[in-house]
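Thread: Newbie trying to understand structure tokens

Hi all, I'm a second-year student working on a class project, and my supervisor (Dr. K.) asked me to get a predicted structure for one chain before our next meeting. I've only ever worked with sequences, so writing a 3D structure as a token string is new to me. If someone could post the tokens and maybe explain what I'm looking at, I'd be very grateful. Here's the chain:
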Amino acid sequence: MSELSREMAGRFAGIAFGHVTQEYPHKLDHILLGDGDAVPPRVLHPIFYGSFDWHSCVHGWWTLLTIRRLFPDLPEAARITILADESFTADKVAAELAYLHRPQSAGFERPYGWAWLLALQGEAERQGDHSWGDRLRPLALAFAERFVGYLDKLTYPITVGTHFNTAFALTLAHDWAQAHNPSLFQAIEAWAERCFAEDRDYRGWEPGGDEFLSPALSVALLMSRVRDRETFTPWFEAFLLDNGALERRFEPAFVSDRSDGKTAHLDGLNLSRAWALRSIRAALAPHPCEPLLTRLADANFAAALPHLSGDYAGEHWLASFALLATLADR
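---
Reply by user tm_fold:
Sure, no problem. This is what the structure looks like when written as tokens:
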């Protein structure tokens, strides 16, 4: 798999610039209680109004800030700085926070958007020359509180390969909480162990025709975060290796129509698989399955990389997952 080169970073940044401030077309996660609630995205979400939907705009911003930190001398870096200064203002953050406090917004973007906002705020804090992380912190704390309450009542994991997947969201949230929120960190670790510790002999049906996450790899990736190598290794062997499921089920998915938003999810599946496989390889190393993990990760990444742009159905979000994959074992 390709490492994140300067050229690739510039490509990812250019794609993200093309949508984080593009308001339309737009799909709102918004409950209307009357005519007065029918307002444009930029009024409801003065920061995250672009990219077709709120969560894609959030991780589009994560893409931009991550590239700015890793490649500060890119021509795009100065443009990212200007746009972030204009976007991450106290007034605009307050408006985003006010939206969360609407009584009908309790389930807004749960859990996918919550997790990406935490990832964005964590990345913003790593931009040491600006206060964007401080400005976004109230949003992060609000979502962290929601996560703790959500896990307290979430009896069963949601294992679909789309935005409602629990394990994917908790992986991003765990990475943030480890540095920022001990209560959430402990809640995620306890919940993951309760729900997934006894999983064995995976035989699920995947890929699904509209999925951008692997249910199995999402769980395995989360468990690689909450366990050390000594306890994760036998769990992973029993879950995906011993029955041959890893080798049988995770060749690249075929994408028949990239103009169809749901079918285009399969490019994201290939990218998120690459991220998970590379991350799991790092957690297991050394292990005899490393060549298999490497081969599958490289194949899935290569299948999707040429298709990050060209149709807005994928263009508004795929670069973020490509960036995750290139950073997996960095």
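A couple of things are worth pointing out once you decode it. The two ends are 13 Å apart (CA to CA). Residues 132-153 form the longest helix (22 residues). Feel free to ask follow-ups in this thread.
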